Amino acid sequence: MEIGKKKVMSEKLNDKSYLFANPESEMSPPADSRISELPINKLSWDDFERLCLRLVEEYHSIDKCEIYGVSGSKQEGIDIFASKDSNKYECFQCKRYQTISPGKLDEIVQEFKNGSWCSKSDKFFLCTSLALNSTGLQDKFNTLKSDLKKVEIDFIKWDSIQINRILKKHPIIVRNFFGDEWCRLFCGTTYGDSNKLAIENITKELAEIKKLLTAGQNNEKLNSIIEEVYDKEYYWIESEKVIVFNKALEEYNATITDKREKFIFSQNIIQSIFDLSELNKIVDDWHKNSWSLENLDHLRIIHSGLLAYSCLDKIPKDILMDLKLLNWCPIHHGYFSGHLVKFIREIKVSMNLKLDLIETYSSDRYFFENLTRIINSLKKYLEYNVNDLYVEKPKASILRNLPKKFVLVTTSNELTLRNPKNLNQVYAKLPLDKQLKVSKIEVVRTLDSTVIVGVNARDCFYWNPEKDLMAHFFYHASEKERINDVFCKIKNDGKIETIVQIGIKILVFNEFHHLKSHYMELYLKLTAYKNSFVGIENNYTHNSETLVYQINEDFQIFPIITIESIRTSVKDFKGIKEWIYSVKSNEELSFLSELQDIQRIYYNSKELILLRGSMNRTGVFLLIRLIKSGFEILNIHHLKESVSIALDYIDDGINLNLFCAYLDLCRRDSVFEYIKIHNFKIVESKTITRYRKNDNCRDIENISVGENGLIYLNEIGDKILVYSLDKEEFEEFSFEEERIHFIKYCN
């Protein structure tokens, strides 16, 4: 009989979040100091399922395993499944039994075989709190194992015996579920419990302080110990937490040091094989003779290409993955995609066939172009400065009572929260990975704190600027993944829900614990809209008729706006129609060649979407309301000065005020356009200009509207401009040694 499961409370029937909570079972310390197994059968049903989930997360990774179904629903013989790179699944059934019979084993396997998961799985795990070691159970298990093997499925038992073996290597999990004493006696250590170790260290230091105080001497040593244990700069944080943060920071920097050593070592090894000047000569020779192939030393390029590719393959894998995610990668993307290896394989086949390589390839420009890409990739790797990739990270600067209003600025090195009236004053600072650009930031306000949530191509993190001396990472992308976007909201229960987009894959986190995953049919650029999302597909990269899709809570997509309907509406709009007529010559104009972005707008308590695109080096935006029967275009505006890639707005209760930042395509004085809309009609449009001293590019990459008529602009990534609508003047703040990626006013 299975116990505990029938007692699941009714409110849990449609909620699996309890699995991510802390264990609730109370465990008495072991009576015997010589223990070989844990009291797994004394765990509650909820805690046993939690334990199984933790083990699966260790066996796979947190992003690859998911809970299937909800308690009380038809689960087709499984509780947890894990995805694999082979497109097959591993399924886990959790059973907390008091007793089990061979017939019950039969039922479990039959239920799995009758379900939909059997055909798409290659492993089926039975996780049970009992030991399946009786003769009858072992015979039945082996029979069922043979039956499943016939359909290419491995039947694996995780009974109490096997679970104990696995847990022996995971003291952190043992301590979380069974307590300190069980962990110490079963695992022989409390390794991994950083908080406890920190507290023990503090206790020792306090004993030393007491001893020094009693002796009444050595004040210098006393002050040193006090400063180490009680960080005066952050006195409001628990002292043990400071030590834990510092320890984690040391471990991170130790890893970086190791990678630095591997990076430098691999460069030195390769340079013992390849002279950098030789690689430079080959690349230069290609640039000079790429259209005169007869002047090339063909065999030299072929042999160097083979050897260069072999050297690239010798670079440590973790370093290659770090390089791949850089904003500018020294190694050609064709190496990572598998494109360049095709030419290496072709050479090896030709050599095995004893073909004349010069005769075969001497006139093949594309062949030599790709070999040169391989050689140039190795050249750039050898020239790359390790300090541009691996930088030791200092701890964050935090502020106890952070003001509610601040300007958030991310650069290539750090994330800072600054005084809106004086950007030189920094409230709090978080060091960032120099090599990875933070692509999206969300600011979340809870009842008692401010939380910054951000993503780069590889990691998702959160940071409390009042308490955290370093960021907390809650998701790390696999080698084949690249994180695209993140969205946060406060749910009705006050908890933070975070949604992470990785291509068509959607991960949902509750309080930064992975809850579930979804997969969309298409990769869309998303924006939050009415408790879900809408998405846009760039119309110049596909042949689909649909441009905008509505997305439900399960991330199913539904077409709502076609490309042709948008193009027709824009061409027929009076102001744009007149402009087209005035500039049209013999060349055909391209209408909305790039619909670049979709954004949610609130105005008059209505939720709208704004589509922004470009048209012949000018910009255009459409203000749209989605309705049951489709959509309604409320207004279209033509930005005649240039293209805009950044827009912000403020609803003052009467008017919708839009601020569209300009790219510097035409080298004009235009910086941004201010548009005032009343009842969906444009009542004022004004171009804000700034005298230019030269023809250097002045693209505005980011714009954010503050209070009191202040507008914050990121110009070409090296300076922030603050424009006052009241004073009609700019103030400039330069960032000479860092590239600015993002600015946002927060209140």
Automatic annotation (TrEMBL):
<dbReference type="GO" id="GO:0004519">
    <property type="term" value="F:endonuclease activity"/>
</dbReference>
<protein>
    <submittedName>
        <fullName>Restriction endonuclease</fullName>
    </submittedName>
</protein>
<feature type="domain" description="Restriction endonuclease type IV Mrr">
    <location>
        <begin position="40"/>
        <end position="103"/>
    </location>
</feature>
<dbReference type="InterPro" id="IPR011335">
    <property type="entry name" value="Restrct_endonuc-II-like"/>
</dbReference>
<dbReference type="InterPro" id="IPR007560">
    <property type="entry name" value="Restrct_endonuc_IV_Mrr"/>
</dbReference>
<keyword id="KW-0540">Nuclease</keyword>
<dbReference type="GO" id="GO:0009307">
    <property type="term" value="P:DNA restriction-modification system"/>
</dbReference>
<keyword id="KW-0378">Hydrolase</keyword>
<dbReference type="GO" id="GO:0003677">
    <property type="term" value="F:DNA binding"/>
</dbReference>
<dbReference type="InterPro" id="IPR011856">
    <property type="entry name" value="tRNA_endonuc-like_dom_sf"/>
</dbReference>
<dbReference type="Pfam" id="PF04471">
    <property type="entry name" value="Mrr_cat"/>
</dbReference>
<keyword id="KW-0255">Endonuclease</keyword>
